[in-house]
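User: Show me sequence and structure for the first protein, then do the same for the second.

Assistant: Starting with the first protein.
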Amino acid sequence: MMLPPPAVPGWASPREHVPDTADAAFMAGAALYALDQLVRSAPPWAGAWRQRLALRCAASACRLSGRSEEEAALRDAWHLRKGDEDPGPGGNVFGAFRQLATRAPEIDAAGLALVVEKLGLRWDDAFGDLPEDFDAAVRNGPAAPFAAAAMMRQVTEVAPSAEPLAWWLGDLMLAAKMRWPRPVPLLMSRAFSPAFRAENGRGKRLKPGEEGFSRALMIGAAEAAADACRLAADIARRAERLQAVSPKLRAKGAGEAIRRLLDDDAVPGTLATKALSRFASRRLFERLTGFDAVQELSGRSSFRLYGL
């Protein structure tokens, strides 16, 4: 049995306005330390955890871009498409954050162009300098949250309309500076937090590069790390239950379904593999739901999606 995921200390989870940047940075450091312990423990359910965080970030990115899709619609767009069919604009935004959760924390020109396209943004020639600047900041830049804030400011100085890309690269920078093998989608999910509101949380939303944004990003990073650790604790409990009931499963190919549940946010109830038919898959997921090892995520009677 694995130890439970670490939790962010209560004092490092800000519940009110934090006016001092040094205090905010101290909170962020403590929260990211707890998250770092979780990342480095590499639990078997880390894939599902990262992808659920990616879904949260994608929903926030859609809101930032003026789109209406929430988490359920984005999940449907991605998981209910046929094969490699285009998941649509919202689904592509989700795809960008899904990719963030699985890649190494580095970027090149081709990779950046693909992310820009998935986020529904227009390429700007000035983006061509970002990969080199990213590498330089990883080698010689400031501490993780400050480096993320600087990278985000640089993106929006080049193209103010490219703020979703700034948040995406902010998480990539955070992971690179923390020396994580893969990023954890975090920061975008807090873009509309009171931490990013001027005038003690009641004013306009702060954008990268604006006065007070770096301090707000420290608070946002602490909040996001605390949320990520709470989500990890919930997923860990379900994963432990899933592994406990797995010996009771008789379906041939059940092991592949379990692996996918541990690796992703959601798995279609119509999953079909070489060893598992769609009919057998449906019965397997119904049984797992009965064991309280997975949850049905769509709320529908058909085209169901299951996850930890």
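Switching to the second protein now.
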Amino acid sequence: SKGYDFLALTDHWFHGEGRQEEKFLLLNGTEFDVGSTVQEGIYHIVGIGMEKAPALTKRAPGLSAQKIIDEIHNVNGIAILAHPAWSLDRASEVAKLYGIDGCEIYNTTSGLPWNCRPYSGEVIDQLAARDVFLPCMAADAAHHYNGDECKLYILVRAAACTPDAILAAIERGAFYANPGPHFTF
């Protein structure tokens, strides 16, 4: 009813199953998190389009952001760094991670009145200065459902609204982060 052709539901540590309906696509996904202090790094990594749930356990010894990224890729998923500004991620540390497929530049629930760091452009700029270029994503990351939902999304240029077509378009960068205006490709 809000005009979405597809969504990825990515609850923390819960592998949401995907499904194809006549006029709507639900991609599978999960948001994984690791770290509890700024010094060690706090990373939230979203996996979408995975063939199955990655072999990850929340408090497993040796769990790291890199292990999460690697496991998402092991099940043919896309790994997205979520809200690095909100997590206070340092570009110098993010640059050491291999295989990030995209980065949230903005998400609504990290903004006012719920939080105060929704925009991650500075982190993305600092990464670019280190020759690390990440496609920019935007997401609601809705947690409250009192104004943080249905505000941000990516607009994807895909041949069809199927998992294969949407994920392939995202992988090749045929999308842009959007807070509302719609541009025709």
